[in-house]
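not sure who needs this but someone in the group chat was asking about Serine/threonine protein phosphatase from Bradyrhizobium uaiense so here u go. i didnt clean anything up, its just raw.
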Amino acid sequence: MFRSFREKPRRKILSPRRSHPARHKPRLPDGVRIYAMSDIHGCAHLLKQMLRVIDADVARSRPRYAIEVYMGDYVDRGPDSRATLDILINRSRRGNTVFLKGNHEVFLGNVLRNPSLLTEWLHVGGLYTLMSYGLAPSSAPGEEERQALVRDLARAMPRQHLEFLARLRLTFSCGDFFFVHAGVRPGVPLAEQQEADLLWIREEFLQSKQNFGKYIVHGHTPVQMPELLDNRANIDTGAFATGNLTLLTIQGSSMLAV
């Protein structure tokens, strides 16, 4: 299907892990095709590859409505957060894109408001974001250096980057599908979910077999290969560590992870 996939010889083709077939397959409205990605984590080079895959598939299949959904964690851990945001902002000008918030975008925003969080942020991959903006902290920055680094980061980040991060949404729904960064809390209606759960939840959500009201597409928790289960799909394959950035395509009731 994705012919341009052959241009990436170093990438391994992953077979998605599936549970038993669902009784009712979730569906998108007729004519809609969705391309979803999550947890890019500064891997601008992998993002560029996947955008070429999307463009080639749209040119070949010519869907009536093609929607790209990006599910957060664009920064930290990978080598080039700045370039990743540049690419996504440029992509947003096409008008068919949805950008969700991840916990790492929240962490970055918290650091910009409260420099005392900088050391903790560095431990979860913030160092790579700083370096992508031309900044390099010492191994154990004191309070004065933390203050200076955060001021320098705020000055180094283009206005478009700050505006992009401020506009991120928490969820996106289309047809029977619900897109979110981390997941949802079982037993709570989708309209009543709390932001902390949408951005951070793990075990309570991952272990649940219940029907959440819609089919949940998420990232946040890295897995060895994409998981397409009865009630959810996890497409975070740890791009910054594995070199595998997963793209999920959905049309009708068909899902394909590459």
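also The chain is about 35% helix and 15% strand. if thats useful
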